[in-house]
Each structure stands twice: as C-alpha cells, then as structure tokens.
Design goal:
The chain is an alpha+beta fold. The protein contains 5 helices and 11 strands.
Length: 204
C-alpha cells in the first residue's frame, strides 16, 4: 500500500450539545498537535463546569492515525470514551481531541442510552466544525555554499517548496518542508548539487 500523505482534521475548536431525560452532554472538539495539550484543556473545562459529573474524552493523533486514547471518567466501561472515539474513526479524523462534559439529570440512561448520548454529542461537535485536509510534510534543513545558491533556488522554484526559515552568509541554511509523496524526487534533485548537506528534522 502506498503511503497516504494526507489526513483530515478540524480547523478550530467547536461545541456540540445533546440532551436526554434531563442529562446534558456538552461536547468540545479541539484540533490537537501533541498529547501535552490535553491536560490544560481538561483543567480549563473542569474549572468552567464545576458541577458537571463526568468529563469523558477520546483523541487521535499523528497523520497515520495510529495514536489514540479514550477515558470513561467514571461512566460504565465502554459507554463514553469508546463511542466518542468511534465518531473520530467513522469521520476519518485525526489530530483531534473531543471531551464530552455530562451534567446528570437524575434519571439513569442505561448502557445503550449512554452510548447514544456520548456518540450524538461528539457527532454534533464534529458537524459544527470546518474540516480541512492537510498533507503530511517532512521538514529538512539544507546547508550549502553561497556559490550554489542559484542551483538551489531553481529547485525550490520548480517544486514550489515552502521555506520555513533561511539564513544567507558565506554558507547558507534553509529550513523547508516537502510533501512526503514528492520527497524522493525533490531530494534527488537537491543531491545533484555540489557540496550541499541535507538533514531531516521532523514530520508535520
């Protein structure tokens, strides 16, 4: 299978709401880049909703959609985090964190009712979002002598590469990103230029 170098995520934070027999389920969806962002978001929501009973959540990370976690936060196992995660899976979204805040309304909803409520709230938040498709890019640093500047810039122009930062002196450094599917072609062209040094930094 060819590497899929695009993924879908949301542009900005959104909210969704679902009510059932007095219980309110408020879903918050956030674009996510790293797991470190999760704790502050949860702390903020707990401060904002001091009377809420449960803060259940799920997230998916990385362009290949391989990192995910979920949390039932005191609800019966499999009734909260899993249905939230399933909405991410069925929408094929990643780099996304959804928290559903529950206010208990006094009536027990039972397992099917809870699964439906958490799923419906998460779906509402996703439907309110603007979904964007991003490409998976590798970020490189290119080090070269000033003498070959024209050759380097020709490749950058031909391939419409995105320059993230640059420093030009006797020796030059350019930090740039290249779409994963174009990687071999772009690196092949650059490596033909004398005296350049390429170093891979990270994927985004």
């Amino acid at each position: 299978m060819l590497f899929d170098d695009t993924y879908k995520t949301i542009v900005a934070a959104t909210e969704g709401l679902f009510k059932d027999r007095g219980s309110r389920f408020i879903a918050y969806a956030y674009p996510l880049r790293t797991e470190e962002e999760i704790k502050p978001i949860l702390a903020h929501l707990r401060a904002e909703h001091p009377k809420a009973r449960h803060f259940c959540w799920a997230y998916r990370l990385s362009p290949d959609r391989s990192i995910f976690r979920m949390q039932d936060d005191g609800e019966p196992s499999g009734t909260a985090g899993r249905p939230i995660l399933n909405t991410l899976l069925s929408a094929d979204l990643t780099n996304l964190f959804i928290v559903v805040v529950r206010y208990f309304g006094g009536t027990l909803l039972g397992v099917p009712g809870l699964i439906n409520a958490y799923k419906s709230a998460a779906v509402e938040a996703i439907q309110a979002a603007t979904i964007t498709e991003r490409t998976v890019n590798d970020v490189y640093n290119l080090h070269f002598e000033y003498m070959v500047m024209n050759d380097v810039m020709r490749v950058f122009k031909e391939e419409a590469l995105t320059v993230l930062s640059q420093e030009f002196d006797n020796t030059c450094d350019i930090r740039f990103e290249v779409r994963k599917s174009m990687l071999n072609m772009v690196l092949g062209k650059l490596e033909k230029i004398d005296g350049i040094k390429l170093s891979y930094l990270f994927s985004s």
